[in-house]
Each structure stands twice: as C-alpha cells, then as structure tokens.
Amino acid sequence: MVVGAVLVACSLGLLGGGAGAVWATTAHRHGGYVDLGTQSYRTTGYALASRQIQLDAAAGGWDVARSLFGTVRLRITATPAGTAVFTGIAPAGAAGRYLSGVASATITGSPAGQPSYLGHAGGAPAVLPAQAGIWAVTAAGPGTQTLTWPVTSGNWTVVAMNADGSAPVSVRVNVAATLPALPWIATGLLIAGAIFLVAGALLIALPARAASRQRAAPASG
User: Fold this and answer.
1) Fold (topology level) of 33-177
2) 179 in helix, strand or coil?
3) Which of 139, 165, 181, 208 has its CA 20 to 30 A from that of 90?
4) Domain ranges in the chain?
5) Span 25-80, pLDDT tens digits
C-alpha cells in the first residue's frame, strides 16, 4: 500500500505539471510565443551581460536546444524611456573579450524577484556595440526593441547597452520563446501521470481487497 500511495502522490505531481504545460501552451501563448516573464535590470556601468548560456548539441549533430526552445524573443526597453538601447547575443568568448576592461555587471540571478549582479570594474568600451562585429543577432534604437534568435547550441552571452555606449544602463526585458517541445512534454506528463495514478490505485486497492476477504473467511476447525 505504501508503494501505491507513493505512486498516487507522484501521479498528482505529473498531472499537475502536465496541466501547467497545457496551460502555457494555450492560454499563455501569444503570437506563437510563450511569455516567460519580465524583469528590470540596472547598472552604473556601461553594459549588462547575462551569465554564459551553455547549450549543448546531442551526438549526431541534433540541435537539442533549438528543438526545446525554438526561437527566443527579447523585448528591451530603456527605463526611463528615451534612450536608444542596444542588445545583442554573441559567442561567450567574443562577448567576454569585448567587455574586458569595461565597467559592467553580469546578471547572476533573480532571488525573490530581485536581480543580483557581479560587478566588473573598468572604463568605457573602446568600440560602440553596433561596431563590435561579434554579434549573432542584434536590435538597436529608441523605444522598445525586439530581438529574435533561433536558438543554436554553443556558449552564448546576452548583452544590453545604451546604443551610444554611455552609462548608466537601465532596461526592462521581456523574454518569450516558441517552445516547440512543450505540447509533447505536456502530453508525456499527462500520460505518465495517468499511468502512475492507475498503478498506484491498483496497488492500494488489491491488498485492501485481499485483506477484506481474509477477514471475512470463516475460521477453520
């Protein structure tokens, strides 16, 4: 019975995860993208950078990252409005070389909804971001800028700056992705949850039924 109870508890978690994935696939999807959230970031330096994003390809050249995430969309707005912003995604090594010696901040996380940073001392960039020639994709200009990136395996860094290379940098970023694998994940979780639920119910019911029969059987002799 204990195993059955564990299976039932696991099934509830799987079914809940599947239901959440279904909800994200339908109600939370707009224009083909699933909204992953919005956050504001700020540094007194000249650039904001993500931690290194490591996306590995599977054996045989299958791009797992693209299969899972599809296309990522970033919408970046300067705060307060009026400053022209630049954002780009570059190979992590190239981004690191460009930001070497630049006063900047690496975003290390968002505990309790508030971003945390690792600051780097330095000065202004020697080259304006649009002229760096390192970016896989970029977006720049006044107002809200939209960057779309077909996710590719490799090591990457996202960088946000003022288009004129000035400091400080203050932006609001919305992240969304197409997540093509999400419907399959939702289906898999729901199927697994249903299997665990049936198996758990049987493991609880059968021993209980057997025990009931044993109690009802007349004593011999």
Assistant:
1) Jelly Rolls (2.60.120)
2) coil
3) 181
4) 1-30+180-216, 33-177
5) 454 555 678 888 899 999 999 999 999 988 765 545 555 555 677 888 999 999 98
